[in-house]
Amino acid sequence: MLDISARKVKGLSAKLADEVRFLRNWAEKPLTTGAVSPSGPDLSRRMASFVEAERPGPVLELGPGTGVVTHAILERGIPQSRVIALEYSADFCRLLARRYGDMTIVQGDAYRLRETLADVEPGTLASIVSSMPLFSRPKEERRALLMQAFELLQPGAPFIQFSYALVPPVAPDPQAFSVQRTGWILKNLPPARVWVYRRTS
After folding, report:
1. What is d(CA 180, CA 78) in angstroms, rounded to the nearest whole number?
2. Which domain holds residue 47?
3. Dist. CA 161–CA 69, nearest whole Å
């Protein structure tokens, strides 16, 4: 009984430490962190549910932060060795390296995706999961990021993005890509929804 209570306290302490770390990064760089706390477990699981585990090839996570969505991706059945985590914050990169020793962690700018991930062959990624604060950037930069992502993804593979907004983070363009949305994940604070983009041409 004491052992279970100790594990609970340890878990709560780690979660609180992540919240503080996230808040500090947001206060220092609000345009790159984008949120004041990590995604909740319901949102994380919903995002990970769109990862196509049956596709061969790496899964790229953009803006993993403290690794909440990373954990959901691994629970989906993706081994650490298949995950590439691209994170801007050096602090978060060090944390991820401690928690996920078999995962490839790259510190860099996702808005220069092709340059940052020059070693990734075009058309090889099985899925991309993004927690990037896209609405902090102009719409042209958001679209440019998505189009770079499509170059790295396998045909038809998903680009998975969450947001707190009513409208999609990248405006629909039926000639170039499709977009589907989930309902609101109300247990997340604030409520969020997931947008899934796939290239059509």
Report:
1. 23
2. 37-199
3. 11
Res 10: pLDDT: 56
What CATH number does residue 42 fall under?
A: 3.40.50.150
| Strand runs labelled E in 133-181 | 159-163, 177-181
Q: How far is CA 88 from CA 121, 148, 152, 155, in A?
A: 21, 17, 19, 27
20 inside domain: no
For residue 9, tell me if it sits in a domain. Answer: no
4 occurs within a structural domain: no
pLDDT of residue 38: 73
| Residue 66 binned pLDDT confidence (cut-offs 50, 70, 90) | very high
In this structure, what token pair is assigned to residue 36? 């004041």
Task: Identify the DSSP state of 38.
Answer: P
**Mean pLDDT across the chain:** 89
Q: Which amino acid is at 141?
A: E
Q: Which residues pair with 193 in a beta bridge?
A: 163
| Termini Cα distance of the chain | 58
Predicted pLDDT of residue 15: 55
CB 163 within 8 A of CB 131: no
Distance from C-alpha of 18 to C-alpha of 3, rounded to nearest angstrom: 23
Task: Please give the share of the chain, as a percent, with pLDDT higher than 70.
Answer: 82
